[in-house]
Automatic annotation (TrEMBL):
Protein name: Ubiquitin conjugating enzyme, putative
Organism: Babesia bovis
Active site, UniProt feature: C42
Entry keyword annotation includes Flavoprotein: no
The keyword Phosphoprotein is assigned to this record: no
Matching InterPro entries: Ub_conjugating_enzyme, UBC, UBQ-conjugating_AS, UBQ-conjugating_enzyme/RWD
Assigned protein family: Belongs to the ubiquitin-conjugating enzyme family.
PANTHER family referenced in this protein's UniProt entry, alphabetically: UBIQUITIN-CONJUGATING ENZYME E2
Keywords on record: ATP-binding, Nucleotide-binding, Transferase, Ubl conjugation pathway
Pfam families on file: UQ_con
């Protein structure tokens, strides 16, 4: 559904980069399970409290976003 599309992503780097991750946001907002209603990407390597490391490159960030957008995750909930 999202693969092959063209999307605009804004990456905002603060003076604290690379100690702190950049803020990555789709504009306009992309309707996707891994994108918050604000347009912010939900990716653990972009979370300072989770998996961010100063050694993560911009290329790795972009590849991570590409993978999380292109791979469709289907969750099945079973009620027993």
């Amino acid at each position: 559904m999202w693969e092959g599309g063209e999307y605009t992503l804004t990456m905002e780097f603060t003076d604290d980069y690379p100690s702190k991750p950049p803020k990555c946001k789709f504009t306009p907002v992309l309707f996707h399970p891994n994108v918050y209603p604000s347009g912010t990407v939900c990716l653990s390597i972009l979370s300072e409290d989770k998996d961010w490391k100063p050694s993560i490159t911009i290329k790795q960030i972009l590849l991570g976003i590409q993978v999380c957008i292109c791979i469709r995750r289907t969750f099945i909930i079973f009620y027993v």
